[in-house]
Amino acid sequence: MEETSSSSKVTVEYFDPYGVYQLLSPGLLPRLPLRNLHWNSHSGPLRSISTLHIDLQPSAQDIRPLSTLNPASASTSSLSRVKSEDSAASGDDGFRTQALSQPAGDRPASVSGPVKPVKERRHQIPGLRQTPYLKVFFLRCDDNDTYKNQARRQVREWIKDHTPPAQSTSKNTPQENHDAYEWLIIHVIVPNTAAATQPRTGGKSSEGGSSSISEKSGPRWRGGGSSTILEKLRADFNGTSKSAVDRVAQIRIGINDVPYDMLPRVVPAIPGSYSETPQENENAWLDLVSKLKSLILASFDGRVSQYEEDIREKDAQRSLPGWNFCTFFVLKEGLARGFENVGLVEDALVGYDELAVGLDAIIREQSSTGSSVARGGSFLPYTEDLKRRAEKARAAILRDMGAGDAAESDEPIDLQSTTKLSGNEDDEIPLNASKKRYRELILANDISIFDFRCYLFARQLSLLLRLANAWSSQEELLAKLKEQRESSLQGVAARLPASQPADDAEVLNVLGEICRRSMTFVSSISRIMREDISASFQASNATGDTQVEIIDPIMTQVVDNIVSSFTFGISQQILAQTSTKSLPIPPSTLAPPSSRIGLDGQEPKAAIPEPKTMMHPARSSSLALRSSSREPPSPGRFPGGRRSSVPEQGAASSPFLKAGLEQLAGHRAELYVLSRSILEQVGKERGWSSGWAEMEDLHSSGGGEMEDIDLNQEPATVEASTLSKIPPSSYGIENKLLQTAVDNKDDFYRLYETLTDKALRHFTVANHIQSVQSNMADLAILKYHLGDYAAAASYFYRMTPFYGEGGWAQVELSMLIMYAKCLRELQRKEEYVKVVLKLLSKSAMVEKERLQRKSSFQIGSKNTFSPEVLPTESYLSDLLEITKTLPHEVHVPLQNFFAHIEVDNTVRYHPEMDSFGLQLRLHYLLSESITIDKAKVKIVSLLGETSREIWLEMEGDTVFGKGMVKLAVKSNTLVPGTYIATQIILQSSNITLQYDHNSASVPCTKAGSFFRSPKLLIYHRTKAFDVRLFASRYMHLDRNRSLEIELLPGWNTVASGEIHVRAATAGLRVQTSETKLLVGSLEIFKKSEPGIVRFGAMEQQSRSRLVMPFNLEHEVGEISLKIEITYTTEKGVFFFATTPSVSISLPLGVNVQDVFKHKALFSKFTISSSTSSPIRLLSSRLEGSEVFGAEGGVPISKPLVVFPRQPATMLYKITKLRSLSKPEIGSRKGPKSSLSLVLNYTCIEEEIENAVTEDLSQFLEKKSLDSYARLMVPVVLAELRSHLSSYDFEKTAILNEISTSILSSINWRDHFSGLGREPESSKDTALVMEECLHSWVQQKSSISLAQVSIEDESMRNSRSIVIPVDIPSVTVVHTADFKLLDPPPAATNMVIAASNQPISASLDIKWTRIWDTEIPSETGAGSQNEYIEFFYEVSGASDTWLIGGRRKGHFRIPRIHQEHDTKAKLSFPVVLIPLREGFLPFPNVDIKPAHSLKHVGYAEDETPRLKRPVVTCETDYKNAGETLRVISDARKTTVSLDASGPQGGAWLLESERRSPGNGGIVLG
């Protein structure tokens, strides 16, 4: 176990009859203290003693030099021995009893022989003795003869007289074991003597201080003739057993270590003399040190064993009568001192701690029994010196009171002059174990509890300081080491290295423990001290009645002064003893530092004159630490249930590595706070306040102060307590620093400020955030109380937010009031505004809490603020005036002054104006009224991709008084949708009160949140300005599509306006610059920006429709526009925005099939519905062109319904009017050849929506709900679209009516939530609208569609589409026709042929070029390409026809069209043989252009200038629909049915064939 340095020492007594200690000490003292000792405890683990200090003391016996000594010996021993001053004052440290011994120099010089030592009378209590642990005999023997004749006898007598009886008797007494010690003989060899020439051992034995020789036969006291002196000593005085301890050591003094005048005469050289080497000399010293360690530990072990046995015995007798605690204390303290002597300070401290616990138990036991003469002994009822001090102070106060207004006498000075020096030192160091003879008083049972506790804690304090390696213990050790060095020769000692204590840093944990114990001790000793002085006063004024308590105001003041001075002195003493350079204290926060009281050695002194100041060293650092030690409560007035000792959670970890640094700083800060509390109490008696008491005057309502009265007192006693108070006095205050502070008010406040500052800086190092702020608050209150507003404001600025965030509401409010006054005095307007706003918000909080308690019926709940701390001064008017002078606005959260804000759920619309408004209810909390100049409310849309916001503003100004107030705001911006209010801004003077619901975090209460805003559904009234979007009713597929925007001003007379059009669909581009007026008389201004259309005046109830072209990057089915319109009327400027959508997909599809003929083209158009909704086709026509003409069949006489699965077909005949001619030079276009298909139609879905809209609008008008039509109709139509199926559409198209049963199960109320209530009936508007729609559905089971006809009115309302129809270009159209060479008779149209008979036919082919719409080219026609070649092929089914003749062939026609080509014809003979009977279709004829051959006539390196045109052809096969009847060729057949035929079958007897005609045609 590692131990730190200790100033306690082990006493070693030496007997030096030859005066050789002076020669030995230069080599011995540098090897002290002893280091690394290990003691094996009987009752615990192995204890390690790092350093053991030795107190070398001469014995009481003195031996003068003998006449028989040689001259060298005489000259050396005649020197006077320097006496150790340390041994002569062994009790000056207050921890040991002074040894009763007489120095050798004080005895008469006539004594010629050895003087028998006078044995010290043993005390019955072993703990009071101070005896050596080791006795040493310094022997000088220069040769063997001297040893034989004189030295042996002298050593034997010394051993007989000084060694313990344990070596001569078999058993030791307990008292002897308490003083157990060992002995040692040190043979000192002086140079130039015969002994110096001898080796340590004779013969061949090894040289060494610890070697032993084998014993020879012969007497014990005789050695061999050749033996050395060391061997003789060991043989004569060491034990004979194997376990005997070697008690002889030998040290040789070097010739350079002895002064010249002290050297003996030179001895003639002896042959074979011995010379010691430096290593052997060092080994001899190590052997001596080892013997010192082992012998001291042996004696210490014997003493501890005996002490422990006696303590166990005494402790076992605790319950017996007559047991005395004081005797037990002295005995156990002896063991503790023994531990302290050897450096086991922790074991010693444990002993004292156990004694402290035992003392507390005895005192409690005596207090419970009520008798001081109880088991354990008795204590004095009071302390005599405290009694004398109190009586003198009381007498001085009485003299002053008797002197009246006379000048102060010198008597108080005489009171302090009785103990002029020691008394003052005792007052500055009140805890001192050597101040009194405490141990003797304890043993004599003549000690009071106060003295007993002071002595016990002083001993604990001294041990803790040594454990902590404190600077006070080190200085004490240095002083004693210096005394010990000076006891040696001056010349030799001057060459020694200066002894220094171990360079170990202080143990900060132990220093912190000292401060912690001191706080506990002060709290208990102050109470004991008061009881002690009161007991002494009662004993001096005792009457017969012990039940009457004597009350003396003067004595009460004296007791307070004495206790305050004592406890203040203790705290200052502990602060001085625990100061360390390892504690980094931040710099002082006081300014200027030169005027502050310096309690640190690193800081300037105070202005208080010397010598009344007291300096305590400290160090400066700006670092902050965290500590886990407990923080003390603030001495100031901190209302509320929360303690200031709670450290801040989540603080930063300490950057220091030293253990205990934070604990030490925290406990030292507690001592500073304790000192300040004492100072504050003393100042309070003199009427000097630190400022906290005056805080109530800032808010008090004139009520008187409360006074504590003890209800158990008698009336006479109560009257005595109300006697006139005596003037304060400083008698009894003997601490210099406290005396200086109470001399005058300036010194009091200066010391109070300094102590607070030091506590704050120590708490900063300990990272006690709460305590730092509480001390800063104390400084702020003090500065405010003293009128230093600038310094007070700086403190308030730093610590006011801390108390607000920590929940110290009452403290924060009080400080805000003072802070505001400081800023007003300093004319710091901006800061004053901020502080007053915060102060007003706290006042509003009080009212809010009151309302919450009232609304929730909280009985017995605690209010954060008491009524007396609320500000009574008016701040609001002053605040508004000051803010007018500020260059910027002051923003304040709205919840600081208002308890609750609620937005009315009903939107208010103004008649005949396109505007709306909201009403808000606010609960204003301040008692002073406030004028609101501006007010704005922001509402934000809940739906849509982008959140649109609308600001509503107040008109004029309004005044808010305390309580519920209403605020109306309006806006001319109307954007239909669902909104919620999110932000409110109120402006008064230059103060802006605002609340943002998105960023605010107001906690919800049981009554609701601070801000309540329902959903607000803003709709578009029927007569308000409206904008509608339509897809253009006329569509031409070859041109840009258009959108139609319809403007309906409603009841507004518009002077001017502008429309902002933006695309809401990706890829959509609206060409606003090409806007045209389609319907109405609206003036459109030409100068317009992109996306903006400006227009002129519009009358009420008028209608205008604008057309805007648009294009798309990619096809979509629906497009949306963001339309914003701003228009001006005589009532103001209004804004309306909407995002309508319209479908641009075609509801129908058209397919065409062309059939080419020789002179005409037949086109069949198939018209179908592309959606699930049927369409109603009103008309269809194909318009011709310059080249082609078109003819239709029977026109549509009534609307034709086209279903998705039942398309309509229209057939048109197209003929060519004229040929295409070449375009003129410079013109790229020829005559128009494409046709146009024009369709007029309506969609059944549109008819349904129009019918439902018209019917519902009429119904709403009857129900007086027509203003909601624009809100309800879109909702009904949207639900109708989602519920209509394909079957419903087809049913509606057939029946021409729509059933409303599909709308009967819809919950309409959810669509209209947010409308609020009806202004007239106060009913829920959503419920009224739901009932209305249900009633409409019930009354209207079906709704008829509008009648549609082909008349002009229906045509105007229908949609039209123009589809361009291009005629495909065909190079050649062939007409193929099979003609039988032998045609049938004209009477019969049916051609009948015999099977398997050839039929002669001719294939006639003619062609035409009229359908070639390509413009002929001038080039490319040469001799080789004047014709176009084709080939034909006649094919039929192989089981039907056998075709012969020219079934395949090539032919060509001229490339250049000629007029006579249409009449030209080619014929090819073909033989047809039918293979089966029946109606057989004619074989197919396929005509295709022949592949063009390779060009000739060009060189290899040439290329054609033009590509050969592609040849296309179509074939008009006239026989495509004709059939040929084929029958058998047998006309008559005779068959025999007789079985006589071959194989028993029938016989063909005869067959007659038909007579064939020409070409295989059967004629009959």
From TrEMBL:
Residues 727-836 form the Trs130 NTS domain. It comes from the Eukaryota. Transmembrane segments: none annotated. Residues 202-216, 617-631 have a biased composition (Low complexity). Residues 65-125, 195-225, 403-428, 582-651, 1545-1564 are annotated as: Disordered. Coiled coil: none annotated. Residues 1023-1143 form the DUF7077 domain. Residues 122-472 form the TRAPPC10/Trs130 N-terminal domain. It comes from Mollisia scopiformis (Conifer needle endophyte fungus). This is TMEM1 family protein-like protein. PANTHER family: EPILEPSY HOLOPROSENCEPHALY CANDIDATE 1/TMEM1, TRAFFICKING PROTEIN PARTICLE COMPLEX SUBUNIT 10. It is found in: Golgi apparatus. Residues 67-81 have a biased composition (Polar residues). Residues 1364-1527 form the TRAPPC10/Trs130 C-terminal domain. GO terms for biological process: early endosome to Golgi transport; intra-Golgi vesicle-mediated transport. One of its GO terms (cellular component) is cytosol.
